[in-house]
Amino acid sequence: MLALIAGQGRLPGLLAAAMEDSGRAFRVAELEGFPAEGLGGRPTLRFRLEHLGTLLGRLLDEGAREVCLAGAIRRPVIDMSEVDAATGPLVPRIAEALRAGDDGALRAVVAIFEEAGLRVVGAGDIAPGLLMPEGVPTRAQPDARHEGDAQRAAAVLAALAPLDVGQGCVVSGGQVLAIEALPGTDWMLASLAAGHDGPKGGLLMKAPKAGQDRRFDLPAIGVDTVRGAAAAGLDGIVIEAGGVLALNREAILAEADSRGLFLWVRP
Amino acid sequence: MLALIAGQGRLPGLLAAAMEDSGRAFRVAELEGFPAEGLGGRPTLRFRLEHLGTLLGRLLDEGAREVCLAGAIRRPVIDMSEVDAATGPLVPRIAEALRAGDDGALRAVVAIFEEAGLRVVGAGDIAPGLLMPEGVPTRAQPDARHEGDAQRAAAVLAALAPLDVGQGCVVSGGQVLAIEALPGTDWMLASLAAGHDGPKGGLLMKAPKAGQDRRFDLPAIGVDTVRGAAAAGLDGIVIEAGGVLALNREAILAEADSRGLFLWVRP
């Protein structure tokens, strides 16, 4: 049985649907305060981080052998007065990890699950369709200038990866217009859409951090990303093949085609 | 005689005033399309980039021995049909440099001046008062958390320096909220002020790029920077000692004190 630990957003619902389609047994545990979408009427365990140890025990009792962390869990807080007995021994590790940033928190939770004997699997393992094959499936196609912009964006993201910063970058005409930080992709695109004095056109690149554990917290794009890129005046979106989840492929491509943007799944 | 090549902003006016105070001979040449402030009624040569060669000849004829580039010259364009005879031989270098970004363009212009026998001097040489001494001259003082934020911001800027990106970074509680790109510091702060879901507080760090030629294009702060940082909800501003120009020290400190922000001139 697979335990699907659900954070915020659409990914948990997509993975639950993929599990159902495959006929494999699974159990959804939803973290309070980080509402997942698309779980519909499925029975879910709801848990608090303060009871993580108890949840872990229950999942093991129910026969869980694998676990998948899906959805965003940004800056959770721990109320020490609510920590239960089974979670107490885990608190120092979780607390230290939270101070290290979002990636650190996820790594700590993954390590705790692994030590309990669970195998951690990635969203791409459960729903391979979320990882798009290399190529440009849109009507609009990138040109030579976009190739240069993609190289520059990739270099910026690579430089920042050791600092656990940056899964997105906007480049136009060789100039870096924006670098994604904590407020995220949608915020970055909206800031650009509000107006700036840089060149028009260009692209958004999304890629996982170099060396990132691809079993959890892969960057994702959705229809909103396409709309945001269009509003920011960009020509297209580049995602790293195998490293970025496309949360609704058909809708993403339809949106990109209707707005004349390219989507480039780059090796 | 010193030739002051003026781009946009307040720096050219401040340097012209400093030259007048010192009694040394100087000549201002203002690039069209990049209006300098505070030059008042001083006689200035106005020039276009297409006539750079002619300007250079004239400055040499007038006895120029030194040159200082001051003020922002962002993304200038060259109209090939307007290039004059003396500038024609320089165009390939300028054009290639423009493609390399703002720093590249400045480096090319500096190299052209140097090859003509002019010594390039920095704004800090002309007006040492623009470089503030180490310390925290405001009433508000940074705490241990701000020290951590400053270290993280410095690490981000150092990672990006080889890519000719980033002279500013906002960090709060160890989280990177924003990284300055082409649209500049004021734009970055205004974007944060418009709202984001990251932590409050934190600081703006401004520093020159590692390895940057400190004779031109040093980052600068002014009263607007303090206002922008306050509007973005930050606790203070950190500038690298010797590497960031303070365009009006008294006004900056008064503004910071009135808004409760610290200004930290960090070694």
Question: Main traits of this protein?
Answer:
homodimer, 267 residues, alpha/beta, Rossmann fold, Cytidine Deaminase, domain 2, five-stranded parallel β-sheet, five-stranded mixed β-sheet, 9 helices, 36% helix, globular, LpxI_N (chains A, B), LpxI_C_sf (chains A, B)
Topology:
Two copies of one chain form a homodimer.
Chain A (H helix, E strand, L loop, with lengths): L1 E5 L4 H12 L3 E6 L12 E4 L4 H10 L4 E5 L20 H9 L2 H14 L3 E2 L2 H4 L17 H17 L7 E5 L2 E5 L4 H10 L9 E4 L13 E2 L1 H9 L4 E5 L4 E2 L2 H11 L2 E5 L1
Parallel strand pairs in A: 1-2, 1-4, 2-3, 4-5, 8-10, 9-11, 10-12
Antiparallel strand pairs in A: 6-7, 6-8
Helix pairs in contact in A: 3-4, 7-8, 8-9
Pfam family, one (chains A, B): LpxI_C
Protein name (chains A, B): LpxI family protein
Provide structural commentary.
The structure is a homodimer of 267-residue chains. Helices cover 36% and strands 19% of the residues of chain A. The mean pLDDT of chain A is 91. In chain A, a hairpin with a 2-residue loop joins strand 6 (168-172) and strand 7 (175-179). In chain A, helix 3 packs antiparallel against helix 4. Chain A has helices at residues 11-22, 52-61, 91-99, 102-115, 123-126, 144-160, 184-193, 223-231, 249-259, and strands at residues 2-6, 26-31, 44-47, 66-70, 119-120, 168-172, 175-179, 203-206, 220-221, 236-240, 245-246, 262-266. Chain A contains nine helices and twelve strands. Chain A is globular and about 55 Å long. The longest helix of chain A is centred in the middle third of the chain and has 17 residues, at 144-160. Chain A folds into two domains: 2-126, Rossmann fold; 131-266, LpxI C-terminal catalytic domain (Cytidine Deaminase, domain 2). In chain A, strands 3-2-1-4-5 form a five-stranded parallel beta sheet, with helices on both faces. A five-stranded mixed beta sheet of chain A has the order 7-6-8-10-12, with helices on both faces. A two-stranded parallel ribbon of chain A has the order 9-11. With 267 residues, chain A is α/β, with parallel strands linked by helices. The A-B interface holds A 74-75, 99, 101, 152, 155-156, 159-160, 162-163, 165-166, 170, 174-179, 181-183, 187, 191, 194, 196-199 and B 74-75, 99-101, 152, 155-156, 159-160, 162-163, 165-166, 170, 174-179, 181-183, 187, 191, 194, 196-199.
